[in-house]
Amino acid sequence: MNIKRFFGKSSREALTMVRKELGDDAVILSNRAVSGGNEIMAFREDEMNAMMNGEKAVHAFNYDQAKHDDEPTALLSLLNKKIAEEHQRVDAKKIDSHLKDSNTQTHTHDADPSDTSNVATSKQMALMLNEMRSMRNVIESQLATIAWSNIQQREPIKSEMLGALLSAGFSPALSRYLAEKLPANLDSKKANAWVKHILGKNLTTIENETEVLDQGGVFALIGPTGVGKTTTTAKLAARYVMKHGTQNLGLITTDAYRVGGHEQLRIYGKILGVMVYAVKDETDLAIALNELKNKHTILIDTVGVSQRDRMVTEQTALLSSSKTTIKKLLCLNATNTGETLTDVIMAYKGKGLDGCIITKLDEAATIGSALDVIIREKLKLYYVTSGQRVPEDINLANKTELISLALNLKTPANRPFQFLAEELPFVAGQARVTGNISQLAEI
Length: 443
Known about the structure:
Layout: E1 4-8, H1 11-22, E2 27-34, E3 37-43, H2 45-55, H3 74-103, H4 112-154, H5 156-167, H6 172-181, H7 188-202, E4 204-205, E5 217-222, H8 229-244, E6 249-253, H9 263-272, E7 276-278, H10 282-291, E8 297-301, H11 311-321, E9 326-333, H12 338-348, E10 355-359, H13 368-377, E11 380-385, E12 394-396, H14 399-408, H15 424-430
Parallel strand pairs: 4-11, 5-8, 5-9, 6-7, 6-8, 9-10, 10-11
Antiparallel strand pairs: 1-3, 2-3, 11-12
Helix pairs in contact: 3-4, 4-5, 4-15, 5-6, 5-7, 8-9, 12-13
């Protein structure tokens, strides 16, 4: 394939040059502003068709960890080969430079011109490698977009499931992966059932409350401001009291920073007949845990701060400093985007999380992003909450019900964040399926 570079003082001028040389059907790989004007990388459409027919473009998906997949196209193979060759040249240049340095007997100032030349050459090679990597990424996206356009026409069920998953809030990467792995010759009903089955296999939940209320232990609810930690702590405390009474339950709050921050839990504790201990540092926590050491279950409500606040690290250190094993349950707001939830998990991970709780389920228009992040991060989901009533608005996480809810939530047809059918190939083409997603079970 003959990829050509066109440069003009403006995007319009560069496009005119492309049309003049390659025709109106030219395939644009990239269009970007550069120093002095605009640069376009393009090639003829007939060359793309010839390449795709020769290389079976239906397989043009390059997963980093999918070992059974071949290189998607001859063009990508060529780019990979060129990049490898450039790496070898750079390595050879470095070796040659080291040999010269080790053999030379001249003073440092005498070798300066040669060293400067070597550095300049290395920089040029590095720039060339970066350009080739960028070109490969662009081509991969373009080929995936074209392939998905074909899939829309040949396999409409895959396109339908891709749209359904994206509308439910699942990430483009997970949605694309599931749609591509969807078995052939399934109708809509069976395809929907298959997707639910795979999601269920990869969403880990607790089967009953034995792991919490019956087994007991020390549980700390952590998470950013406003996620509902205090109310959720009260709900769990009420569920415990209803089953085991008040004698073996302990409540602790670390929220000594906000004015009246611990009062809300104290009110709940007073209603339940359980004393609440307020702590502000490691010494206070150790004293409180020692006084409550004979309790069957201890619930700790922690202070809420932004996931980017340094106090997150302090809270993690506080909980990790105790000699008593404290299980950390991260509260995740169902109304947050997947990016925000991932940011929260990364901030609160610390020395590890034992599980999570989805809060504000009743306020979320879509919940796919929350389930997506939990699957991606391999967290165990304990409970879901959906309101302010204590203890009614908390339930064990039922994976079947949650996945069905995610896929069946109806949204207005003109919803601005929904993808149109013609936009799906571009979304799928830009998605990168790597890491945990390419390791989903039962596929």
